[in-house]
Amino acid sequence: MTHPFKLKQTADLCVRSGEVMVFLTLAYLLVIGTFMVLYLLLDPHLAWYEAIVVSMTAFHGRGFSPSAFSPGDPLSIASAIEAFVGLIIEVTFIATLTRRFFGQ
Fold first, then answer.
1. From the CB of residue 81, how many other CB atoms can be counted at a distance below 10 Å?
2. What is the value of pTM for the model shown?
3. pLDDT of residue 24
4. Which of 18, 30, 32, 63 could form a disulfide with 58 if both were Cys (CB 3.0 to 4.6 A apart)?
């Protein structure tokens, strides 16, 4: 059973870190949306929902490359750039939560 004080601490933590979390959420949505549009421009055969899937998997560094992609392919290059941007945002998110949890 969780102690009521722990629940209050967790709620306070979420409120205090709310501004940073809102910023990170907006950055996440902006990056996903921007790269989704880029994927649609680079490969007009992709449906909009397929472009979202490609963008989300690339953002989290778990991109997949079908046999049609090669390292020099513009889609592969865009995926690599998005994975790097995603890494920076994820590290910032983790650092923010860690800092809040340990009171630094």
1. 13
2. 0.71
3. 84
4. 63
Q: Which two tokens stand for residue 66?
A: 């079908």
Three-state DSSP class for 85? helix
Domain ranges of the chain: 19-97
Cα–Cα distance, 50 to 64 (Å, whole number): 12
Question: Cα(51)–Cα(56) distance, rounded to whole angstroms?
Answer: 9
Residue type, 6: K
Q: Are 49 and 55 in contact (CB under 8 A)?
A: no
| Residues 18-42: tens digit of each pLDDT | 677 788 889 999 999 999 999 999 9
Q: How many CA atoms lie within 13 A of 14 on its CB side?
A: 5
pLDDT, tens digit, 9 for 90 and up, residues 50-103: 999 989 999 987 766 565 667 778 888 898 899 999 999 888 888 888 877 777
DSSP 8-state assignment for residue 61: T
Structure tokens, 56: 């989300």
